[in-house]
Design a protein that fits this description.
By secondary structure, this protein is of the alpha/beta class. It is 55% helix and 11% strand. The protein has four domains: 222 residues, MFS general substrate transporter like domains (Growth Hormone, Chain: A, Up-down Bundle); 243 residues, Growth Hormone, Chain: A; 33 residues, no CATH class; 267 residues, Vaccinia Virus protein VP39 (Rossmann fold, 3-Layer(aba) Sandwich). 56% of the residues are buried.
Length: 783
């Protein structure tokens, strides 16, 4: 029997709509489908992070949901492709329509069901609930590419190019979806609006499939029957598919961690890096498919070439000194750790340009191009007849996603905490080498197999074990590293009284190494909230919640009050806590031994939601996230979260946070009043607005009020006779910003408005705007 089944872009479709549908229609459909899939994933993951948290475990669980369902969809496709091309195309159109209908309602469904049913503190329960919620649309996404490959297959001689090309277009669509969602859609339309755009793309893809039906060549029943064979995959090929899938997700996790340490956690970084990664994956499908068809008689040589080039480039990327990236603006610093950068390098402080992020990511992640090419080569290896192309692609893809699940879970939960980035990279090289070796040994090519393994072992051995300690630039010197599931906490000494502790090189905390000395700027009374307690003599907090260990100043200062009974500190990163604990010296070290302090490693938003369900109450909540414009941080400053914090406060209790116009605008929407005394905090009261006419210093706060550490600004704080107070019941005109909500996280997504010049920055400090119309000066009374 001839290998020929039918030709999509042959003479029968030589012109007009028929030609377009044959040559480009399926590519366009898969491109739109891939774009929609990534838009959904970004939007759903953001919504789920507000429900089950954004810590390492929660993130891995969300990725696992996607991978499991994609694999189930692909496995289901093995059955459906037996029905013939016309029915497969009808199924494809129906699936796109079902996904679109779900997509239109997905955000309200996710939030509504979790709010009414997902009330357990168990992550496992949350995982299972959302697995059920998202299973239908994601399984549908997993069905689409195998069905189109089944319809579009032509002949055995080009089956690799067809499968790799179509899968490549699907991934290219995903790359575009990641880019436009992260830079434009969420900012412009919010999460719900983003899913509406994605659903429209699903409808468009279905329309292409329906239009293509009338131009699909009819075949006899005998031809249909012969074209629906199932592919039988040998154990070694199945194992290789799993190992290749493992490597694909593992290298993605590793590269995202490495690149965030170059580029910081700016919100433009993730979409640009993900776009670059997916484009390289798409290119790998096209490259692998072309090589698989061209060298079909010697696929093992193709496997060796793709693996060796990828392994060497991966090792080289991790051995390059990070300082070289500064020449193209890809080594970035925040305003906090940027204090260690010399004057001529100050342009490196702040967000990188999207172009610099994209180009640098492409260069550093080049191994992805070659390793992703292993998928179409493996597919071509297991297909002996074009009749089995659809089922074979479905089976290889489902096994590949099993490896994806293992790669995400094992790398994120075990390899990185145990081996660090360097060790995990070496392990990933070994895993992919093992996948290649299983294919080589099946053909008896023992000598080539051993040579391949030797190259893999050499590349793995050359990966640096102390990778992050190579980050040295000007006076910025990483001297200690704490790596785990959440990220990489790097320790950078300064010449002042604190040591910088960054998570993924984004300023997160610091450790006090000594008491402030002459020339240092530090006012203890401003940190211990004694200004607020003097203005409100009835406010004497016993139970305090601190979100984010930050610089630990507040925790240390609050311990001086005799009425403090408990301080609960919640931080998402065990690495940050370990680093701060290891490098804090002097009296401040007591925060880790005082029985009144309880440090909890958890997502702050999830902890507060759980505390509300447990019926807990606090007198003071201090939200110590200083830079919420970094990835995920604005979840802790949405209007919905302000309302949750208010629900957790006792009557007359206070929320304290950094005095930024964005926080004031959203906080006033919930609390209706705010107090600002001019320095570190703005206070929101749960209850009637405070209207003080004096600041009364009682004996129980006298010591804290008079606390003045060496090196203060030279002002006699203990002897001050007046206190300036700003009382706000309405948002001042200069403090008006776009609302930051769960559905519309404007604090974090701002690139488009910034480019268009319409962005009212929520980062402006209250001390930088004129608040004289709301301020008063009250006398200080020592009682």
């Amino acid at each position: 029997m001839s290998d020929k089944v039918h030709t999509i872009d042959g003479p029968k479709a030589a012109s007009g709509l028929a030609f377009w549908l044959g040559a480009n229609g399926f590519k366009a459909a898969l491109f739109m489908s891939g774009c929609a899939a990534l838009a959904y994933q970004v939007a759903w993951q953001r919504a789920l992070s507000q429900i089950i948290g954004s810590d390492a475990v929660s993130t891995v669980l969300v990725v696992t949901i996607f991978m499991i369902c994609l694999g189930l969809g692909s496995e289901l496709a093995r059955i459906l492709v037996k029905s013939g091309e016309r029915r497969a195309l009808k199924l494809y159109a129906a699936i796109e329509i079902v996904v679109a209908l779900y997509g239109f309602l997905s955000i309200p469904i996710i939030r509504g069901v979790n709010a009414s049913i997902g009330t357990s503190d168990s992550l496992t329960a949350g995982f299972l609930l959302n697995l059920g919620l998202l299973s239908i649309p994601i399984i549908g996404m997993g069905l689409t590419t195998p069905l189109i490959v089944h319809v579009a297959k032509e002949s055995l001689s080009n089956v690799g190019r067809v499968a790799g090309g179509l899968y490549g277009w699907n991934i290219a669509g995903a790359a575009f979806g990641a880019l436009v969602t992260g830079l434009v859609l969420i900012e412009l339309l919010g999460l719900s609006g983003t899913t509406w755009v994605a659903a429209s793309l699903n409808f468009a893809a279905a329309g292409v499939a329906i239009a293509a039906l009338s131009h699909l060549p009819l075949r006899s029943k005998n031809t249909v029957a012969s074209g629906n064979k199932s592919a039988s995959i040998a154990f070694n090929s199945a194992l290789a598919a799993v190992l290749f899938g493992f490597g694909t997700l593992s290298i993605q996790i590793l590269y995202f961690r490495v690149l965030s340490n170059y580029l910081t956690l700016s919100t433009i970084v993730f979409p640009m890096v993900l776009c670059a990664y997916l484009l390289l994956m798409a290119g790998g499908q096209w490259l692998g498919g072309m090589l698989a068809d061209k060298y079909a008689h010697d696929l093992r040589r193709v496997v060796i070439g793709l693996f060796v080039i990828g392994a060497v480039l991966f090792m080289t990327a991790l051995r390059m000194p990070p300082s070289w990236a500064s020449t193209i603006g890809a080594l970035r610093f925040t305003t906090f750790n940027g204090q260690l950068v010399d004057v001529q390098h100050t342009p490196l402080i702040g967000d990188a340009s999207p172009v610099a992020v994209f180009v640098f990511s492409l260069l550093l992640m080049l191994p992805v191009l070659f390793w992703s090419g292993l998928f179409p080569v493996l597919f071509r290896h297991v297909i002996s007849s074009v009749d089995a192309a659809g089922g074979g692609f479905a089976r290889v893809y489902s096994l590949y996603t099993v490896g994806n699940v293992l790669g995400a879970f094992v790398s994120g939960m075990f390899l990185l905490p145990l081996l660090g980035t360097g060790g995990s990279a070496a392990a990933t090289i070994v895993v992919v080498a093992a996948g290649c070796a299983t294919l080589m040994l099946s053909g008896g090519a023992r000598r080539k197999t051993w040579a391949l393994l030797a190259v893999g072992a050499a590349a793995a051995a050359l990966v640096p074990s102390n990778y992050y300690e190579t980050f040295k630039f000007d006076r910025y010197r990483v001297t200690d590293v704490f790596e785990g599931r959440t990220g990489v906490a790097t320790v950078v000494p300064t010449e002042t009284f604190y040591t910088i502790v960054d998570i993924n090189r984004t300023a997160s905390a610091s450790a006090l190494k000594r008491d402030p000395g002459p020339g240092d700027q530090y006012e203890a009374w401003r940190w211990n909230h004694s200004d607020l307690m003097a203005l409100d003599p009835q406010f004497r907090p016993k139970n305090v919640l601190v979100i984010g260990i930050g610089h630990a100043y507040l925790i240390d200062a609050m311990l001086d009050f005799p009425f403090i009974e408990k301080i609960t500190v919640v931080d998402i990163s065990s690495e940050i806590i370990s680093a701060v604990k290891a490098h804090t010296e002097g009296p401040s070290k007591r925060i880790f031994s005082d029985p009144r302090v309880n440090i909890v490693v958890a997502d702050g938003r999830r902890y507060i939601q759980s505390a509300i369900r447990r019926g807990e109450k606090y007198d003071l909540i201090q939200n110590k996230i200083n830079e919420p414009w970094h990835a995920g941080g604005s979840n802790l400053f949405t209007r919905e979260f302000f309302a949750e914090e208010k629900a957790l406060l006792n009557e007359g209790g206070y929320l304290s946070t950094r005095p930024l116009v964005g926080h004031l605008s959203d906080g006033l929407h919930v609390f209706e009043s705010a107090i600002f005394t001019g320095y570190y905090h703005v206070y929101f009261r749960n209850g009637a607005p405070l209207d003080p006419d004096r600041a009364t210093v009682t004996t129980d706060i006298r010591n804290a009020w008079e606390a003045k550490l060496p090196g203060g600004r030279g002002r006699e704080e203990a002897g001050r006779a007046t206190l300036n107070v700003v009382l706000l019941n309405n948002i001042p005109p200069l403090a008006v910003t776009d609302a930051n909500t769960d559905d519309w996280p404007t604090f974090e997504y701002y690139w488009l408005r910034q480019v268009l010049g319409t962005w009212a920055s929520p980062r402006v400090g209250l001390g930088s705007i004129d608040l004289s119309n709301s301020s008063r000066t009250v006398p200080v009374i020592l009682n």
